[in-house]
Write a structure and sequence with these properties.
This protein is α/β, with parallel strands linked by helices. The protein is built from 11 helices and 7 strands. The protein has one domain: Rossmann fold (3-Layer(aba) Sandwich). Strands 3-2-1-4-5-7-6 form a 7-stranded mixed β-sheet, with helices on both faces. Helix 5 links the parallel strand 2 and strand 3. Helix 1 packs across helix 3 and helix 3 packs across helix 9. The relative contact order is 0.14.
């Protein structure tokens, strides 16, 4: 099928299908009983097309599981609200063991919010839930959203699968706007490196460009990129290391591990930072 990814919103269908496949394993590391319904046939089509070019299931599964853990950690540390930017088809407000008093705000393009609400009609979130249709490139609108979310704070901000599609200026602007609200205490995101960005664009670039969803952001300085805007790293979970811990890793992982033992400490750290799940806090 030509151009299976027609817009950046289609990536939500794509990753939901991977969550569905993990849920349907006999030994799932998380359960998302809503994922297959949310992904639909379009999600299955995208996965079939992408899988011919690159294996993407294990990084998505690992990212989901690790972010689940870090969301719950923030709740244990006093988080009272979650602001999920470009929330896509994330079903954590329905599937995680969250406090009933927690306020969860999903924000995404209006058409994505409407689709998700139709698919989830009849299912009740476990916490207080609000969905906001918004174009996050509208700076004034997003600042208003951030101010409204801050009322419920302390707030955990999630940008799962978002930053890689933005350019550096847009990420910097987002970081500044979030930091202006003192209630924004934690920021949970995934982060690519320049080598990963190069690999993804070589393997998937044509498909993503066809859907106007090129991958752009993979800072050479890793989380130090965010320091000038008031954010510091408190958790860095290497996708590779977590894949080994969770037993959801790439084929021939043992060989990559063996080869890595012969590299310098600098090379090993570069490999560790190839891709990661990051929790930051206000500096």
């Amino acid at each position: 099928m030509n151009a299976p990814i027609r817009s950046v919103s289609d990536t939500a269908l794509w990753v939901a299908m991977y969550r569905a496949a993990e849920t349907e394993r006999p030994d799932p590391i998380f359960r998302d009983p809503f994922a297959r319904r949310l992904a639909g046939e379009r999600g299955a089509e995208i996965v079939r097309s992408v899988s011919r070019r690159m294996t993407m299931d294990w990084p998505i599964v690992v990212r989901t599981a690790v972010m689940d853990e870090l969301v719950l950690r923030c709740v244990q540390e006093g988080c009272m609200a979650v602001l999920n930017l470009a929330a896509g088809l994330d079903a954590r407000p329905w599937r995680l063991a969250l406090p009933k008093a927690l306020w969860w705000i999903d924000a995404d393009m209006p058409e994505m919010v409407a689709y998700k609400q139709r698919q989830m009609a009849g299912d009740t979130p476990v916490c207080q839930y609000e969905a906001v249709g918004i174009d996050l490139t509208d700076a004034a609108a997003r600042r208003e959203l951030f101010a409204q979310a801050a009322v419920h704070g302390p707030v955990l901000v999630i940008t799962e699968g978002l930053l890689v599609y933005l350019d550096a200026d847009a990420v910097a602007s987002l970081a500044r706007d979030l930091h202006q609200q003192e209630a924004m205490r934690w920021w949970l995101t995934d982060l690519a490196s320049p080598p990963l960005l190069k690999l993804l664009n070589r393997r998937l670039g044509a498909q993503l460009q066809a859907g106007n969803a090129p991958m752009r952001f993979g800072p050479a300085e890793s989380t130090a990129f965010f320091a000038p805007f008031g954010w510091r790293e408190i958790d860095y979970r290497s996708t590779w290391e977590e894949s080994l811990r969770l037993k959801r890793t790439a084929r021939m992982a043992w060989l990559w591990n063996l080869l890595g033992k012969f590299g310098s400490s600098r090379k090993r750290e570069q490999f560790r930072r190839f891709s990661g799940i990051v929790r930051m806090e206000r500096a």
